[in-house]
Write a structure and sequence with these properties.
This protein is of the alpha/beta class. Helices cover 56% and strands 17% of the residues. The protein has 13 helices and 12 strands. Strand 9 and strand 10 form a beta hairpin. Helix 4 runs antiparallel to helix 5 and helix 9 packs across helix 10.
Length: 358
């Protein structure tokens, strides 16, 4: 038997008993109001019990199970910080109601006996909702106040640690571990629960390549959690009414005023169009690559054909693609080439060259 049906049965029995008890006063009222009609007290009690029984069977889940399920969903979605802030707000509400209880009790009857209880419910609700919904702003305010205080032993001003939202692509890429170890990120990595769910979905894919990428991402995440260089947090923060992971990340970044760490080119463009700061791993990789200018020469091994006629393709040690004009004739050979053009975007960098002999 399901819990819903059990609650309906119990509610029907309880309301039926209430209806039977109510039937006797109802019979007396009807008897006084309609003295000319011969009423049967047993029939009135039965009808009253039946009506209350039906009402109890219908509404009991909505006053017992449904509110509990709603609270479960709310508590499941809420972050631990929001829950603790809500409890703190409830405590502040009780304190505020205790302070106002005595002045309210001096009001004329019946307000003097009712208003203290109303104040208790009202203050508890308002303070808990306020602190739970705005806990991040409140915490950031306290952090800013603390940051403005002189740091002891350092002779300087403290700096607030920023939060960085991490995209699935950055975790799967794997380079985030090396970047975190260098200390260049300078922030707290926040991984939303929906990003972790997407990573798990990819690791469970039927496609072997996607499955390998997903499992590599889970291994990367485990390495990040073991690394104490930079703090990492799995957050339950989410955005209601949005299904796409990229859209949820962008909206969440705007709400938190945090940058997004990614190497997804499309997410990069969409986030920038909406005014969100993006930390692109490919941009960082391009920035630290060896700078080559048109006219300079270097050696590269041609390993495959290019898309255009007679082109050869090779790669530098850092993974940069080198497209060599007339390089198809030198397949699997080391070739000394001269740089003619460099194309650099957020998706990567390409070097165009031609053999030095030409």
């Amino acid at each position: 038997m399901s819990g819903m049906l059990l609650s309906r049965i119990i509610g029907a029995v309880v309301f039926g008993i209430i209806g039977a008890i109510t039937g006797q006063p109802l019979f007396k009222y009807l008897e006084n109001y309609f003295p000319n009609i011969n009423l049967d007290p047993g029939l009135i009690i039965t009808i009253s019990a039946a009506v209350f029984l039906i009402i109890g069977f219908i509404i009991t889940p909505y006053i017992t199970i449904k509110p509990i399920e709603g609270l479960k969903k709310l508590f499941k979605k809420a972050s631990p910080q929001a829950l603790m802030s809500g409890l703190a707000g409830l405590l502040l509400g009780f304190i505020a109601s205790a302070i106002t209880a005595y002045p309210l009790s001096l009001l004329p009857k019946p307000f003097g006996s009712v208003m203290p209880f109303v104040a208790l419910v009202l203050f508890g609700y308002l303070f808990s909702i306020l602190l739970a919904s705005r806990h991040e702003d409140i915490l950031s305010t306290f952090k800013n106040v603390g940051d403005k205080m002189p740091a002891r032993g350092k002779g300087g001003m403290g700096e607030g640690v920023r939060k960085i939202l991490v995209d699935t692509s950055a975790i799967i890429d794997g380079r985030i571990v090396d970047i975190a170890e260098t200390g260049f990120l300078g922030g707290n990595l926040i991984i939303p629960r929906f990003v972790l769910n997407e990573l798990q979905f990819v690791s469970d894919s039927s496609d072997s390549l996607r499955r390998q990428r997903g499992r590599r991402g889970l291994e990367t995440l485990a390495e990040l959690q073991e690394n104490k260089t930079i703090p990492i947090t799995i957050s339950d923060l989410d955005v209601e009414g949005v299904r796409e992971v990229d859209d949820r990340l962008v909206i969440l970044a705007r709400q938190m005023k945090s940058p997004i760490l990614t190497n997804d080119f499309n997410l990069n463009r969409v986030a920038e169009l909406q005014g969100v700061e993006v930390l692109n791993i490919n941009d960082l990789a391009n920035a630290v690559k060896v700078v080559l200018l048109p006219g300079e020469s270097f050696t590269v091994k041609i390993i495959q054909e290019g898309k255009e006629y007679n082109q050869g393709v090779g790669y530098l040690d850092d993974g940069t693609m080198v497209v060599v004009e007339n390089g198809e004739h030198y397949m699997n050979e080391e070739l000394y080439v001269n740089v003619t053009k460099i194309l650099q975007t957020s998706a990567g960098r390409m070097i165009f060259a031609k053999p030095e002999l030409e």
